[in-house]
Write a structure and sequence with these properties.
heterodimer; A: mainly alpha; 35 helices; 59% helix; B: mainly beta; five-stranded antiparallel beta sheet; 7 helices; 25 strands; globular
Chain lengths: 712, 441
């Protein structure tokens, strides 16, 4: 153990505890026991004192008894033989006239986690279940669960199970809830406690007698119950209605989840419940306890996925306060982006603009990225703000703004003109690789509209030797070539120098320039409530992602040249082993061309009827969507659009031409647990051809399965 | 269900460790501590997972209160439970600090033993717990009603005024012995104010979150009636009384509060249990009944060379009877600022340049209502540009307004039934804190 002189301490304590003079002085004796427990808490191994502590348990002093029991429970597994010495005292206490002593002894006896203890505790537990003091019954009921766990191999004792089901009618509310908990553990292998109609209604009727902890737990147990009829369902909902307004957040959250699950078939009821729970949830978001605030925010974020409009009017509640820790601020910024609408956009942007100059660099960058995301809908206002920020000439701000610009031109091409005007002169302030990459991308793709573009590139080419990041170099090469095609006269000379420098780099692929459409299909879908309700009021929404808000680049790297170059490499190394050249061509001869435009795809997708829908039965590959795209390209399927890797539901749209038909496909990964559900494949075809369709599905499945094997 | 509960100091010392289910060893503490100290501050530290073990923690009183679990429980429940544990510890030990937890570890073990069995929360109500808790509180210092800090300049003020000393509630509940000084009840009306004022002086956001908190030392009290303003109206549409109604948008009550007289007479009936509890919470959004307590009139100018002149005029719009305490004004300044010189209007004020936060802080210990204070700051900023001016602001204020509620909520009366024999003392205190008070420039 890490404590210096620990052996000395144990010896000294041992001497003191066995000293008859100290034993006779109650206070001094108790003080030494205090010291033992303190050392134990600090991590010192004081198990050597077990004998002395067992002796100390035979006392009338309850405080001393409690401490000794705590000690015994901690070290019982190390000294099983010595524990037996204490059993006698414990069993005697179980028959004490004072219910507090009875309960204490029984609880601790059940807590002694050592093999062979069951034969000693079974009888006291059974007696305890029929004790007249509710305190002892509470302990005894949980004792059943503890006993079951100690003898994992033996069969479930049906008499105990029946007894516990019977005790659900116990007048003491805590005993009732403990019965549920104990049954849940004992019957774990059979799927836990059964909530049938009489039990469900009994629980519902007693909800009011319970304290809030028990309420929220019972509400969670009720999730298991399925009402038989509509009438019953609405009876239950009206009983629960009052709890939606509970001031105690755990109860509120448990009720809301139950409501949402019970009313899964009635979206209008769900929406109504969400509206009614809005006030209390907003209060949780403003609670004094920061941790509670955070939990509230995470859950509001889930709700926003289905009901973005609901919180729009309350946007001010999500303004960051000066003293809040950054993990709360980041959540609030994300929420502000989600709930922005025509009415509040001005004020939300003004608030976000305030965060851009925050002393925390991460917060400033997150705020800038948030403005960029809002800019996809309200580009003009956001461009004004972003352009204004460039005037500050701060390294991190300019870099974040340029990255945001890149994403903006990608998503809404109409902003290109303004962006091109704004980025002139930024190159002096940008120092980090991410920012440089973004600027170079803009210069390469839109260089024709930026007057100073060749000169900026020249600066970079001249400073090439001191540039560390290879990603920047690749981006520079791409940009130089792209610009050369547009403005050959100005670029020719420097491109030559650049090529000379990096003569070994040959692979340059031109990526697409923008991704304007698919908005209708991918856009910002309103998720059905059922997508997240199963994780509502659990830890999942709080720990889901480890990273701070959406990292500025992850959402958009799919168009930077670096990824387009790098990822196919990663993908192909696995692919080439599987597909022989014949496979590549496919039996049905799929081909990529002629290229289908986004708009055409979208129109066709909406026009055509569904030819096939199939649950593939396995989850989507863990690899990045770009790898998937590259892999599919090898078998001549073009991936037109896909959601970001971390979003759910994850979607991808694929098309191919084969044997004179056009096949459009959608891959959908609906839920958060990739283990439980498979991907859903929907296919539309024009003109219909069953044979081709089956071939297509077979090839697609092979590719996906290979990718899964490759990454798992 | 909760697997373990532990309390750690920020330096990683174990103060309390209790294992309820034997699912994980003591190593869990180390794992947790390593995880929590490795956080950069940008990641959400509330929930952390390690090999199927989830750690939920809250930070209170400079200590980590953590629970570990193997199941996937409601985060609200675990967080509220830990907060409740901290609150109970405060009730029983008097204050919440490393020292008090260390001294009373036996008591906290006893509490935990009764609160949680096998990882399931049994009860957290003080009424139930007081029957089982036997350990006596160890107080770090003998309690004295008149603490040094509360005695006025000439020693006379506090003894005359009818104000309960602020430290009066930071003393342990004495459950076992009701003999000494245990006849008091405190009703606190606490409001937290969050305000944003735009650069044009328009109030953009003004929210009040308030609560009525009862701290009861009475050993046996059957019923207490708290009378609130009769003209109190709840909700946007309701209107009571004539004109100057006290308004709130929403309110919620503690489970134990009986509301049969609330609709008609605005009386809350409760049987307070010993210890502290929040009996009512309320909110008011976007509609302050009075002017916001502070107004700022800033001027930011470029002086010759690299000097920046910031002239702040701060006005307190409270009534002259009220006073704001511990006012602290924080103003972000350009990143390159190197030195600060200031002209303040009185010697008790102070101002400093916080180079870490790139902000200047102006502290005013006492600010009477109706007064106006001004300060001139001269900043030396090498390479000052016109863009640097944009980095100045927004100003945030921290303050405390004793004896003041922004909603105007008042406790009309406080009655105990049956009437306590003789010496029971009832205190009503009001305070408004700034949750976040931002003024844009």
């Amino acid at each position: 153990m890490p404590y210096f002189g620990s052996e000395e301490t144990v010896k000294e304590l041992k001497r003191a505890l066995s000293n008859p003079n100290i034993q006779s002085d109650r206070l001094r004796y108790r003080n030494y026991i205090f010291r033992v427990i303190r050392s134990m808490t600090q991590g010192l191994d004081v198990s050597a004192l077990f004998m002395e502590m067992v002796k100390a348990s035979a006392t009338v002093d309850i405080v001393q008894k409690k401490l000794v029991y705590l000690y015994m429970c901690t070290y019982a597994s190390l000294k099983p033989d010595l524990v037996l010495l204490a059993i006698n005292t414990l069993r005697k206490d179980c028959a004490d006239p004072n219910p507090m002593v009875r309960g204490l002894a029984l609880r601790n006896m059940c807590n002694l986690r050592m093999p062979g203890i069951t034969e000693y505790i079974q009888q006291p537990i059974m007696t305890g279940l029929r004790d007249k003091a509710p305190y002892v019954r509470r302990v005894a009921v949980l004792g059943c669960a503890k006993m079951q766990r100690l003898q994992t191999l033996t069969e479930i004792d049906a008499t105990i199970v029946n007894e516990l089901y019977g005790m659900l009618r116990d007048p003491d509310p805590v005993v009732m809830v403990n019965c549920l908990r104990a049954l849940e553990e004992i019957l774990q292998a059979e799927g836990g406690v059964v909530i049938n109609k009489p039990i469900a209604h009994h629980l519902l009727n007693r909800l009011k007698d319970l304290d809030s902890w028990a309420q929220s737990e019972v509400l969670t147990f009720l999730l298991r119950y399925r009402p038989r009829s509509e009438d019953e369902l609405f009876d239950i909902l009206s009983l629960l209605d009052g709890f939606l307004q509970s001031g105690h957040t755990p109860v509120l959250a448990a009720t809301l989840r139950l409501f949402l699950q019970l009313a899964a078939e009635h979206p209008a009821v769900q929406v109504d419940a969400l509206v009614r729970a809005r006030g209390p949830l907003l209060n949780a978001c403003g609670a004094q306890s920061r941790e509670l605030r955070f939990a509230g925010l995470c859950h509001v974020q889930k709700i926003l996925k289905s009901q973005p409009g609901q919180y729009g009017a309350h946007y001010k509640r999500f303004f960051c306060s000066y003293s809040e820790p950054s993990y709360i601020k980041f959540r609030k910024i994300e929420i502000l982006v989600e709930l922005v609408n025509d009415e509040n956009v001005g004020l939300v942007l003004e608030e976000l603009r305030g965060y851009c100059t925050d002393v925390s660099l991460e917060l400033a960058q997150a705020a800038i990225a948030a403005i960029g995301r809002i800019g996809r809908m309200y580009s003009e206002k956001c461009l004004d703000i972003l352009t204004g920020l460039l005037g500050l000439k701060q390294e991190h701000i300019t870099s974040a703004v340029v990255q945001t610009f890149r994403d903006l031109t990608w998503h809404c091409p109409q902003s290109t003109v303004l962006v091109c005007r704004a980025v002139e002169g930024c190159e002096e302030t940008i120092q980090d690789a991410e920012g440089k990459q973004a600027l170079l991308w803009l210069l390469g793709v839109h260089g024709g509209k930026i007057n100073s573009a060749p000169y900026v590139l020249e600066g970079y080419i001249n400073g090439l030797k001191s540039e560390m990041s290879s990603a920047v170099k690749v981006e520079l090469l791409t940009a130089a070539v792209q610009l050369f095609l547009v403005r050959p006269a100005e670029m020719q000379d420097m491109l030559g120098r650049l090529l000379q420098y990096c003569i070994e780099t040959r692979r340059v692929i031109q990526g697409p320039e923008s991704d304007p459409s698919m908005g209708v299909i991918i856009g910002r879908p309103e998720e059905p409530v059922s997508n997240w309700v199963s994780t509502f009021n659990t830890l999942t929404p709080l720990c889901g992602r480890v990273t701070s808000p959406e990292p500025t680049t992850s959402g958009c790297t799919n168009h930077t040249t670096q990824n387009v170059v790098a990822d196919p490499l990663a993908g192909t190394s696995e692919e080439t082993e599987v597909y022989t050249p014949e496979d590549k061509q496919g039996v049905i001869g799929m081909s990529l061309g002629p290229t289908l435009l986004h708009e055409d795809f979208e129109r066709l997708w909406l026009e055509l009827k569904l030819s096939l829908r199939e649950n593939l039965g396995f989850p989507g590959p863990r690899s990045s969507p770009e790898t998937l795209q590259a892999a599919l390209q090898l078998v001549k399927m073009q991936t037109l659009a896909f959601s970001r890797a971390d979003t759910l539901p994850w979607k991808a749209y694929i098309y191919t031409h084969c044997s004179g038909t056009l096949v459009l496909a959608e891959l959908l990964q609906p839920t958060a647990e990739p283990e439980s559900d498979g991907m859903v494949l929907s296919i539309k075809q024009k003109p219909e051809d069953r044979q081709v369709l089956q071939e297509f599905v077979a090839v697609l499945k092979t590719v996906l399965q290979t990718l899964i094997k490759g990454t798992s | 269900m909760i697997s373990q509960v532990f309390i750690l100091t920020t330096s990683g010392d174990h103060l309390i460790y209790k294992d309820f289910r034997g699912e994980a060893g003591v190593d869990a503490i180390r794992t947790f501590y390593e995880a929590v100290t490795a956080l950069s501050g940008d990641q959400p530290p509330v929930v952390m997972s390690h090999k199927g073990m989830h750690f939920v923690h809250v930070k209170q009183g400079g200590l980590y209160w953590a629970a570990s679990t193997k199941s996937n429980p409601s985060p609200f429940t675990v967080i509220e439970f830990l907060n409740r544990l901290a609150a109970l510890t405060k009730d029983y030990c008097g204050s919440l600090s490393e020292k008090s937890v260390r001294m009373n570890f036996a008591l906290i073990y006893e509490l935990l033993d009764e609160m949680v069995d096998y990882g399931y929360i049994q009860t957290t109500s003080t009424d139930m717990l007081k029957n089982f808790i036997q350990t006596e509180t160890m107080s770090s210092k003998p309690f004295s009603l008149f603490e040094l800090g509360n005695v006025g300049l000439f020693g006379a003020e506090t003894q005359q005024s009818k104000v309960a000393p602020s430290a009066a509630t930071s003393r342990p509940l004495m459950f076992t012995r009701g003999d000494q000084g245990g006849n008091e009840i405190f009703v606190d009306v606490i409001e937290r104010l969050s305000v944003i004022i735009g650069s044009n002086g328009v109030v953009m956001k003004a929210d009040i979150e308030g609560e009525i908190r009862v701290k009861c030392y009475l050993p046996g009290c059957s019923e207490m009636r708290i009378g609130l303003n009769e003209e109190l109206s709840i909700g946007k549409s309701q209107l009571r009384g004539y004109g100057m109604a006290v308004r709130m948008d929403e309110c919620s009550f503690h489970q134990a509060v009986k509301l049969d007289e609330f609709d008609a007479y605005r009386i809350l009936k409760i049987c307070p249990s010993q210890g502290e509890q929040t009996v009512m919470q309320y909110q008011l959004c976007d509609d302050l009944p009075c002017a916001p307590p502070f107004r700022l009139f800033p001027t930011v100018e470029r002086d010759i060379g690299n000097r920046l002149l910031i002239y702040l005029k701060l006005r307190c719009d409270l009534s002259p009877k009220s006073v704001a305490l511990n006012v602290s004004v924080t103003l972000p300044i350009p990143k390159g600022s190197v030195s600060l010189s200031q002209e303040l209007s009185s010697p008790d004020q102070s101002a400093e340049l916080q180079s870490k936060n790139k902000a200047l802080q102006w502290d005013i210990p006492r600010f009477p209502g109706g007064a106006q204070l001004s300060a001139l700051f001269k900043l030396e900023v090498p390479g000052l540009s016109s863009a640097s001016l944009q980095e100045v602001g927004p100003v945030s204020l921290c303050f405390e307004l004793p004896k003041h509620t922004c909603t105007g909520l008042q406790v009309r009366f406080l009655r105990l039934t049956p009437t306590q024999p003789g010496s029971s003392q009832r205190w009503v205190r009001y305070v408004t804190h700034s949750d976040s008070y931002t003024i844009r420039i």
